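We emphasize that the prediction below concerns an isolated chain of 112 residues; any contacts that depend on oligomerization or on bound cofactors are therefore not represented. The input was used exactly as deposited, without trimming of termini.
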Amino acid sequence: MNIYLTGAALALGLALASPSLAATGQCSLTGFGTFDCDVETDGSGLTFGLPDGQTFAFAAVNESEGLGYLIAADASPGQRPEELGEFAPLANEAGCWQSQKDETKFCAAVSQ
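Result of the prediction step, given as a token string:
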């Protein structure tokens, strides 16, 4: 069974101080298709590695808004990530969010 990481689940974490947790799951990001991943959550967002070595990072602002970033595979200290802009949850696709500025979409579900 998969648990889909929705806006409410991530926003709830905004109020909680919790250590980073990692879980095996299924992820997707525009341009990469669906792939097995380790999803790390820290209470206010999530990260997962992409097949090409980059890292996708998502920070929830509230249950209906978040910010997405791509971190280069060879990132060095002080290097800024690529900003993907604001994302909103997709009502008809649990665990999926879409960029407000383009067609970029990601989905994340962890195994239970």
